[in-house]
Amino acid sequence: MLNEKLSRWARLIWVAFLPFGAEAHHSFAATFDVEVIEELEGEVASVYWRNPHVLFTLQGTDDQGRAVTYEIESHSLSIMRRMDVSPDVLKVGDVVRVAGHPNRRTDNAMFVLNALLPGGKEIVFDPFGEPRWAENLGTTDIWQASQEDAVNEGTGIFRVWSTTFGEPGTFPFPEIFDPSLIDRYPLTDAAREALTEFNPLTDIPTLNCGQKGMPTIMEQPYPMEIVDEGDTILLRMEEYEIVRTIHMNDARAGDEVPASALGYSVGHWEGDTLVVETTRLNWPHFNTVGIPLSEAAEVVERFILDEEGTRLDLEMTVTDPATFLEPVLLTKFWLALPGIEVQSYECIE
User: Whole-model pTM?
Assistant: First the structure.
């Protein structure tokens, strides 16, 4: 059985990484029994190796010997790429054994953690998992990397940065994993009322590949490249292939600049620290679990490079008098891991 730590990370990565369907967004633990690991065996009937998550089906038999189609799902294509697992390792017609969390609501669905292939090797789908039966044909090194694995390439902040889970402080919105942490926010009465009216079955903003705006997009766990374009700095993020533009030689925009989900960002340097002020936002969500954001919101980000040049910290202050009684500080960090690229996302509903 998966130990407590791995079960916790399976729940974390599900909620944080994947814009799944409404049922999954409602609660991973409510949908899948994370205290139980079951095994199934069958012939692969279909494979959908894509974002926002990998899906495949198995043709097998139940305890009564009746034919049944099992629906198997797991993490995203973006995660599997960085575990060096390619889509051609799982083929239609393969007879495989899988292990994972059973679905609480149906007998023919599972969140898969491990799959034993015909050749005797194993796919470990969980970035914090371990092989169950055989040698893992992929790797979990990137997702578990620490700062000692990072490399200073001498480019300052202008490079590709990676999120990892080898150290604490990865996510700026911990309430995604622990709803009780919502209480840490100094919410206005209006924001608390909006939170009570939030329906996780229908109101999740990332349903059906819905893209995130600011400040929510800064939680995205995939690589981000910071590009110097002279008068502008670009933040190229893998999730949804979003590009943020930071205007470096431009006064704060007036009303002639239309509001948008990413807003209008103006930056300046304070020594080696990049400071970015973002206004003109119309993304109505502070996070993906019910706290709203008004168009009066302002976001100030400080991108701080450490002395070794291998870690980039983000301090993000959100001010919104309609939502918060006082400014809210969010933090995140990235590591300078070698050989990482921002790749295509191509979310398919």
Answer: 0.86
Pinpoint the residues of the chain covered by CATH 2.40.128.20: 148-335
Cβ atoms of 347 and 51 within 8 Å: the answer is yes
In this prediction, residues 34-45 reach a mean pLDDT of 94
SS3 for 9? Answer: helix
Task: Return residue ranges of the chain for CATH 2.40.50.140.
Answer: 4-124
In angstroms, rounded to a whole number, what is the distance separating the alpha carbons of residues 233 and 267? 8
State the alpha helices, DSSP H only, in 97-244: 189-197
CATH fold, domain 148-335, is: Lipocalin (2.40.128)
Secondary structure (DSSP) of 209-259: GPPP-TTGGGG--S-EEEEE-SSEEEEEESGGG-EEEEESS-PPP-TTSPP
Class of the CATH domain delimited by 4-124:
mainly beta
The total of other beta-carbon atoms located within 10 Å of residue 260's CB is: 13
